[in-house]
């Protein structure tokens, strides 16, 4: 239920839930281990690539690190009670690989697993379905030292780690996703270098992407063998990619970026093959010699669900000599073989991340996955926005974020009406947190976090979302 000391936000819900979601629709919120847990050196945890990256001068805004973050490791029971107060039906969290298996191989760290046992038990005791993500970017540093995701062996190590977690939590956790946003891990971590581990090599990025998917497939096989009742999937970040005009060069630019951003992962996982045009685009980067016989069969091991993270749309245009990329996360080396494609801004409203707000793109994305790729149940496993928030008289009235959620939930409902088997929605994020290379300068949370005191304040969007969950719907406009 919503916090009784704060009445539900008024406005879009006043007329009654005329847009009703299906019975049993899974309403949740999401976080990631390194972004919230803190306790970076406690309980047997060892460094991940993000510990190393954030402690390297110049890598993260203002030198921020995840050493303390939201101190969720120590405040977990209170945070779960907050989730229950908001009426969440599910909580999507990630397990910290270096907390569970500090060296990236060998036996599990019992103290690390115990934290997640307590978290799962606390969630279940409060009527909240645990949704476990095995990898949200925190590779153990020893594995990076041995080559990281560009090295094939890392895929096998990931499957071993997945088995350790399944042995400990598989009796109580129904929903499992292997990877979160492998595009970011591969192309931001090993391509542009703006994310950990901070390497910048196009061929390494492509190899990393393949081995991430191979690790996914091996993990699914291990989980399926030991936990046959589990619901298994992967979470991919997808974008509708639109040409800036009908000109052939712009259309081809959109095709190229769509291949790298979307089809690079969707095709191997759901079709068991790489797109032919992608291989042609990358011919100057790699010959795909790292792909071995049988890899694509493993990668396309059948799933039970697909998670879609959606934030914005890419609008692209043909190269212009001398043009520079406009945004750090779209740096040229994010797009090996297509470095000169231009990303076009349209003058529409943006978030504090400078990401264009495009709710119809969610409908487009969900319909595409369903109509072109799979009949599997789909879940929006992340959707949210960063805005500049402020505490005024003890409240955080984040009207822009509330409007963002409202628009995207209407889009989700539209997708369901169009026949998409959408089964749930996870708001990003439950609380303000360490926003990767932006440190603590960007706030995505429905709950305000005072990083000095660790006080939590549910924002207006959180109270509004609690009412959406309670009513399982939105008012018609």
TrEMBL record:
Cell inner membrane found in the keyword field: no
Alphabetically ordered keywords of this record: Carbohydrate metabolism, Cellulose degradation, Glycosidase, Hydrolase, Polysaccharide degradation
Coiled-coil residues: none
Catalytic reaction equation(s): Hydrolysis of terminal, non-reducing beta-D-glucosyl residues with release of beta-D-glucose
Catalytic residue list: 181, 382
GO molecular function: beta-glucosidase activity
GO BP terms: cellulose catabolic process
GO cellular component: cytosol
PROSITE patterns noted in UniProt: GLYCOSYL_HYDROL_F1_2
Residues reported in the UniProt entry to bind substrate: 35, 136, 180, 311, 428, 435-436
Cited Pfam families: Glyco_hydro_1
UniProt cross-references to InterPro entries, sorted A to Z: GH, GH_1_N_CS, Glyco_hydro_1, Glyco_hydro_1_beta-glucosidase
Keyword Hydrolase: yes
Enzyme class label: hydrolase
E.C. code: 3.2.1.21
Family stated for the protein in its record: Belongs to the glycosyl hydrolase 1 family.
NCBIfam families: BGL (TIGR03356)
PANTHER family (UniProt xref): GLYCOSYL HYDROLASE (PTHR10353), LP05116P (PTHR10353:SF36)
Protein name: Beta-glucosidase
Originating organism: Micromonospora coxensis
């Amino acid at each position: 239920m919503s916090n009784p000391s704060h009445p539900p936000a008024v406005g879009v819900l006043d007329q009654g839930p005329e847009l009703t979601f299906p019975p049993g629709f899974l309403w949740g919120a999401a976080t990631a281990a390194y972004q919230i847990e803190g306790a970076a050196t406690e309980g047997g945890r060892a460094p991940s690539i993000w510990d190393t990256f954030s402690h390297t001068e110049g890598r993260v805004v203002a030198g921020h690190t995840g050493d303390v973050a939201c101190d969720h490791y120590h405040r977990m029971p209170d945070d779960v009670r907050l989730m229950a107060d908001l009426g969440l039906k599910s909580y999507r969290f990630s397990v910290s690989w270096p907390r569970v298996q500090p060296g990236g191989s060998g036996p599990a760290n019992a103290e690390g697993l115990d934290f997640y046992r307590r978290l799962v038990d606390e969630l279940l005791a409060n009527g909240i379905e645990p949704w476990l993500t095995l990898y949200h970017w925190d590779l153990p540093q020893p594995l990076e030292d041995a080559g990281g995701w560009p090295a094939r062996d890392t895929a096998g190590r990931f499957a071993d780690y997945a088995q350790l977690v399944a042995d400990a939590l598989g009796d109580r956790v129904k929903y499992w996703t292997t990877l979160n946003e492998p595009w970011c891990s591969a192309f931001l971590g090993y391509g542009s270098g703006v994310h950990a581990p901070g390497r910048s090599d196009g061929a390494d990025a492509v190899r990393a992407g393949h081995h991430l998917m191979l690790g996914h497939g091996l993990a699914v096989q291990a989980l399926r063998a030991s936990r046959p009742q589990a619901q298994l999937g992967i979470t991919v970040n997808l974008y509708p990619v639109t040409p800036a005009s009908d000109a052939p060069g712009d259309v081809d630019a959109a095709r190229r970026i769509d291949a790298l951003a979307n089809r690079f992962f969707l095709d191997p996982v759901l079709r068991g093959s790489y797109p032919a045009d992608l291989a042609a685009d990358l011919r100057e980067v790699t010959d795909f010699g790292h792909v071995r016989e049988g890899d694509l069969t493993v990668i396309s091991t059948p799933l039970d669900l697909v998670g879609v993270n959606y934030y914005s749309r890419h609008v692209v245009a043909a190269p212009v000599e001398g043009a520079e990329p406009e945004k750090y996360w779209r740096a040229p080396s994010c797009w090996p073989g297509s470095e000169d494609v231009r990303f076009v801004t349209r003058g529409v409203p943006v978030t504090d991340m400078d990401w264009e707000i495009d709710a119809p793109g969610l409908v487009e994305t969900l319909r595409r996955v369903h109509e072109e790729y799979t009949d599997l149940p789909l879940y929006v496993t992340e959707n949210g926005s960063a805005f500049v928030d402020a505490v005024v008289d003890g409240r955080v009235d984040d009207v822009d974020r509330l409007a963002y959620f409202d628009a995207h939930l209407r889009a989700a409902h539209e997708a369901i009406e169009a026949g998409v088997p959408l089964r749930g929605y996870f708001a990003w994020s439950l609380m303000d947190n360490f926003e990767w290379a932006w440190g603590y300068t960007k706030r995505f949370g429905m709950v305000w976090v005072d990083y000095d005191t660790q006080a939590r304040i549910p924002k207006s969007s959180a109270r509004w979302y609690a009412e959406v969950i309670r009513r399982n719907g939105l008012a018609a406009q």
